[in-house]
Amino acid sequence: NDETDSNQQTSAVTHSKRTIAISMLPMLITTVLALLAAFAPFSKALQLTTTAPSKLSARDLQDFLSRPANWPGIVASSNRVENKDPSLPLKKGMQVKEYFGANLLSVDWTCRESQPGQTLVVESPNGLPGIADKCAMRFKIQDNQVQLEMEYNPLSPIALLATPVLVVDNWIALNVLLPAAVDPTPLDSFRKLMGTLYCGAGLAHLVDCVGGDSVLLTAVGLPMFSDLALIGKAYACLWCAAGPFAFWATRQTKPAFLPDFSLFLYGFIEVLGVIIPNSPEAIVNACTVQAIVLAAWFYSANKETKYSTT
After folding, report:
1. Spatial CB neighbours of 30, under 8 Å, sequence gap ≥ 6
2. What is the mean pLDDT of the chain?
């Protein structure tokens, strides 16, 4: 009898599970259909448009963009390219393979249009299998502007999730990395950039000293600006003034040493300013920043030398 009761209980449990499973089927089907319906509106091709100013002539910019060897240098997500000679401009019908995502993904592009000084169009009908297809990049180029129209047909939610990343990637490519890559005077651009940054830092330091809580001074172990001795106040003011001076000096062409001198002066004043109160952490931070600035200066100078010899 006990065995019979046990079998009946097992049968009842099994029947109950089947009933629950069958009852859940409509809900499961409805959920799947809802997800498909939600994804359906996005199954059409998406188009992302990015516009940026350009300092190059339209012909020079189109020539630069049409050489696949330049792509990894201006697209953060691009790792490398492959074709017979990536350094040559693409012509209609030419193909190139571009690798992304630590070389784990790749797209085979075919040049559909390349008009010097006007347009560059590359397409990839297959795109990324299972993720997106019917991919295209269309560059419309003018003397003072470049516009990129990126188009793709999403095949997976992954392609939709990647859309914000692509928007940012395209903006950085055209507004930051491209200007840096084609800048014929990178050292001068670097000087002006640092002059601007130092100017902002100097003015912020002035506001903090005069109308604030002297956060920078107290952080390195010094008293508030109002409690400093006269010589201390004079040094703090010198530190503040070094920023605007660097901004002005980096915009001058004569004497030739003035732009670099102004950057060196700001760095020297900053490092000495944290050495005086003997704050080890602040000294390390200040020296690290200036070491990075110096390395960037040498990088820019080396890049400018390459431009001048080509």
Report:
1. none
2. 85
Angle between the N-to-C axes of helices 186-211 and 258-275, in degrees from 0 to 180, rounded to the nearest 10:
40
Distance of CA 56 to the CA centre of its chain: 21
Q: Confirm if 93 and 114 have CB atoms less than 8 A apart.
A: no
pLDDT for position 280: 84
- Taking a C-beta distance cutoff of 8 angstroms, is the pair 54, 175 a contact? no
CA separation for the pair 156, 170 (Å, rounded): 21
108/125 Cα distance (integer angstroms): 9
Total-model pTM: 0.59
Non-local (6+) Cβ contacts of 112 within 8 A are 92, 121, 122, 123
Residue with tokens 């049409």: 66
pLDDT digits (tens, 9 = 90+) for 121-156: 999 999 999 999 999 999 999 888 999 999 999 998
